[in-house]
Design a protein that fits this description.
single chain; 204 residues; alpha/beta; 38% helix; globular; corrinoid adenosyltransferase activity; CblAdoTrfase_CobA; transferase; P-loop_NTPase; Cob(I)yrinic acid a,c-diamide adenosyltransferase
């Protein structure tokens, strides 16, 4: 697809503009590094385009910090102060989300994941955001904490122009089949293979 020109033009009755403006469901999966990094990079592009961004991290520990959280939160504050870019909301499961306040063992983590999806589901139906990052979302799907069929149904039926990017290893087949853009990160080499620990500015 050189210079962004599609190699095939489908006979779907849509104009080039209408086809270009369709919302994208992207899945970043695989064992290689860079799934979340790529998703947050897309979120920064979305911010620059003035889109309303909602980030939802499905992580168990509130201690897990990523540099993109600070950067995107600062960009959201810049939008509030100057109108530049778009608004940003960042929510994390390990902190009990922003609408619930509790933490605990495996059962409670599963409950938090389910509550997180319920809130995202509501926002998608209400068209709250224009760009969603569901980070590490494949894990609660694979663990059975969230119903894959319900997720696929909601994503397929979403209205308006709501882009959704999902990250995590072993994306379920039904999710991959529903996606418009699927990228599998394949590890060829990693510094940790040589006994080197993660570095600030590289891993977080």
């Amino acid at each position: 697809m050189p210079q962004g020109v599609p190699s095939v033009i489908p006979d779907d009755g849509l104009t080039t503009r209408a086809r270009r403006n369709q919302p994208v469901l992207a899945v970043h999966t695989g064992d290689g590094k860079g799934k979340s990094t790529a998703a947050f990079g897309m979120a920064m592009r979305a911010w620059n385009a003035g889109l309303d961004i909602g980030v939802f991290q499905f992580v168990k520990s509130a201690k897990w910090k990523v540099g993109e959280e600070s950067a995107l939160t600062a960009l959201g504050q810049l939008h509030t102060e100057t109108g530049q870019g778009g608004p940003v909301q960042w929510h994390k499961m390990g902190e009990g989300w922003s609408w619930i306040r509790h933490s605990g063992g495996e059962t409670e983590h599963a409950d938090q994941a389910a509550q997180g999806w319920a809130e995202i589901r509501r926002r998608i139906i209400d068209q709250t955001h224009q760009f969603y990052v569901l980070d590490e979302f494949t894990y609660p799907l694979n663990w059975g904490w969230i119903d894959v069929d319900d997720v696929v149904e909601v994503l397929r039926a979403r209205e308006g122009k709501q882009h959704v990017v999902i990250t995590g290893r072993r994306a379920p087949a039904a999710l991959v089949d529903a996606a418009d853009l699927v990228t599998e990160m394949v590890k060829t080499r990693h510094p940790m293979d040589a006994g080197r620990k993660g570095q600030r500015g590289i891993e977080w």
